[in-house]
Design brief:
The structure holds 2 protein chains of 2 kinds.
Chain A (H helix, E strand, L loop, with lengths): L1 H11 L2 H9 L3 H22 L10 H20 L12 H25 L9 H16 L5 H4 L14 H11 L8 H18 L7 H9 L7 H6 L4 H21 L2 H17 L2 H19 L4 H29 L14 H16 L2 H17 L4 H11 L1 H15 L5 H12 L3 H21 L10
Helix pairs in contact in A: 1-3, 1-8, 2-3, 2-4, 3-4, 3-8, 3-9, 3-13, 5-9, 5-10, 6-8, 8-9, 9-10, 9-12, 12-13, 12-14, 12-21, 13-14, 13-15, 14-15, 14-18, 14-19, 16-19, 16-20, 17-18, 17-21
Chain B lengths: L3 H25 L1 H10 L9 H6 L8 H10 L6 E3 L6 H11 L11 E5 L8 E5 L3 E5 L6
Parallel strand pairs in B: 1-2
Antiparallel strand pairs in B: 2-4, 3-4
Chain lengths: ~450, ~140
């Protein structure tokens, strides 16, 4: 019963933000945003607490205030946004697709319930060393313990990592009464909350089965589900970043400002989940600019759309980095990067990336997505290539950014690649699938739109 | 506007894609199902978080140190937790067991470290399998 209350209150915290979209007649986006806005409302008071005296007492009250504060932010994002989205008509198809997703969500919750049944829950290294440590700290403390953030003995605890996953789990611990060993159930509920929301947000942009396929795609990536239940943050990052990219890209293609705004909020969640979320934010925003341009929008309007998409995430990123600086986090992001080794490491990185991506299942999945993107983009060779390039700009930008991080890692590159590459690239195939699914939408939108000179984008 | 037959074939393709992704997701989550099966043998063994900390992947045989800390040290007493290389994993598990009730601090009077460790005059409070809990003497502080 208490777990249901924790789940309901998490989603209820998203209502003020969702109501802004409902009032604009976008009920599907309002419902889809509930887990995202709720998670932000839970996380922001913790992230900002060092600026407000450090206390995290009365967390529910502070979260409610943050939830109310998110509504005007959403309103500002929607200001001037165009609305060309047509209501979806395929009610039967959507009912069936959502039933498939509901079944998948139920399986995730059942897996969590099975793992938390007084047995070993299957937590992995990062879960036990990073995410569950701060979950316990947030669940049991009355203030954010600033000393822990700068304690040299805790450097490997990566206290500069953002707080969205620990905040969600700590909420289930505090409100839901779950103990540490029982948080597998919370992990199941978190995945079950975000995955169907991703599809629902695409109700006016994609056909029902395509949207449902995209929402299920992360779980088709080998190792993602078991890593999620290991209490790692990478799978959650994939879920929120995929929603952010797909919603904002579909919004850019369809000149649907509300969908771009929803994508922007999802990308802010990505930034609040892991440091790599900042890379997904840059990738998503560059994808919006590229897709706006290829849809015939002026450069100024395309850039404005990109800024609109990136703004919430940039604010969250800046707030968390400022908080880390204030707390004196021992291992801040750019502190020990080895830019002097960039050149020397290129060969090693290219070889490792090549070997990883050339493994048959990955090569087939990525190759199929790229070929499908090209095939479905429509138009002549040049148009087709330009559209495919715009659709694949985001995953390409993410891989480029990630490569730069690896090249400048303060750790031994081989060790860093071995321990993290499969996780940091969990999202690549799902995002490429999103590009393929949006390709025909882009082709149809361009064919149906009026001459380029009359187009405008919010 | 697309012709209806083209729309129909697109719709069929989309449903086939959903079926394929669902099948692939079922296949890819085989490791999760295996984990559920493998951990079924431990079901009923961890009835509280105290049992969870004593499980081998967390503290295992070092749990005697945690029990001593919980029994003898007042909440809020800082503890230094040391150990590198082969001891790194266990060192990090102590964070999970001790925080936030006992802050981790390098300069704390109490010290958990892999034996043999400690300096002249340090007092051994309790011994785990590889780690010990010491109270630092004035000399080693």
């Amino acid at each position: 019963m208490r777990v249901a209350l924790a789940c309901a209150s998490w989603l209820a915290l998203g209502v003020p933000c969702a109501a802004v979209f409902w009032r604009r007649g976008r009920r599907e986006l309002g419902v889809a945003l509930l887990p995202f806005a709720g998670a932000l409302a839970l996380t922001l008071p913790l992230m900002l607490s060092p600026w407000l005296g450090g206390s995290i007492s009365y967390w529910p009250l502070r979260a409610a205030i943050a939830a109310l504060a998110l509504a005007p932010c959403a309103q500002a994002l929607l200001r001037g946004a165009s609305e060309r989205a047509q209501p979806a008509s395929d009610a039967r198809g959507w009912a069936l697709a959502l039933a498939v997703l509901a079944a998948a969500s139920l399986l995730l919750v059942l897996a969590g319930r099975a793992l938390d049944a007084d047995g070993w829950p299957g937590y992995g290294w990062d879960g036990l060393s990073i995410w569950l440590v701060r979950t316990k700290v947030l669940a049991r403390s009355h203030e954010l313990p600033a000393a822990l953030f700068r304690e040299p003995q805790l450097v490997q605890g990566h206290w500069d990592y953002p707080l969205l996953l620990p905040a969600l789990l700590a909420w289930f611990a505090r409100v839901g009464g779950l103990e540490l060993r029982e948080l597998a159930l919370a992990l199941g509920l978190v995945a079950a909350g975000f995955a169907p929301a991703l599809a629902l947000g695409l109700r006016r942009a994609l056909a029902a089965p395509a949207a449902a396929a995209l929402a299920l795609a992360p779980f088709a990536v080998p190792g993602l589900a078991v890593t999620h239940f290991g209490a790692y943050a990478d799978p959650l990052l994939v879920l929120v970043a995929l929603a952010g990219f797909t919603w904002s890209a579909a919004g850019a293609i369809r000149r649907d400002g509300a969908l771009v705004a929803a994508g922007a909020l999802a990308l802010a969640c990505a930034v609040a989940t892991k440091n790599e979320g900042a890379l997904w934010l840059l990738a998503g925003a560059s994808g919006v600019v590229a897709l706006s341009r290829v849809s015939g929008t002026s450069l100024a309007s395309a850039l404005a759309a990109g800024v609109r998409c990136a703004l919430p995430g940039v604010l969250v990123f800046a707030a968390w980095r400022a908080t880390c600086a204030r707390l004196g986090v021992a291992d801040t992001l750019p502190a020990e990067l080895r830019f002097d080794l960039l050149g020397a490491r290129v060969g090693e990185l290219v070889a490792a990336l090549g070997a990883f991506l050339a493994e048959p299942p990955r090569a087939i999945a990525l190759g199929a997505c790229v070929v499908a993107t090209l095939a479905l983009a429509g138009g002549g060779l040049r148009t087709r290539s330009a559209r495919a390039a715009a659709l694949l700009a985001a995953p390409a930008a993410y891989v480029a950014g990630l490569s730069l991080v690896y090249l400048s890692t303060p750790h031994e590159l081989a060790w860093h690649l071995t321990t993290s590459l499969p996780r940091t690239l969990f999202g690549l195939a799902p995002v490429c699938l999103a590009a393929a699914l949006l390709a025909s939408t882009l082709a149809r939108a361009n064919e149906a739109s009026e001459p380029a000179s009359t187009r405008s984008f919010p | 506007m697309q012709p209806p037959e083209r729309r129909g074939s697109r719709e069929i393709a989309a449903w086939l894609l959903l079926a394929a992704i669902a099948a692939l997701a079922w296949h890819s989550t085989g490791d999760l199902r295996a984990l559920v099966r493998d951990t079924a043998a431990t079901r009923g063994a961890l009835r509280s978080d105290a049992d969870f900390y004593a499980a081998p992947p967390v503290l295992g045989d070092e749990v005697a140190i945690l029990r001593h800390v919980e029994r003898e040290l007042a909440p809020g007493t800082p503890i230094s937790v040391e150990g590198r290389g082969a001891y790194e994993e266990r060192r990090q598990r102590f964070w999970l067991a001790l925080l936030p009730e006992h802050p981790i601090a390098a300069d704390a009077d109490w010290r958990i470290c892999p034996a043999p460790c400690g300096g002249p005059g340090d007092t051994l409070a309790v011994q785990g399998r590889d780690f010990v809990l010491l109270h630092r003497s004035a000399e080693t502080r």
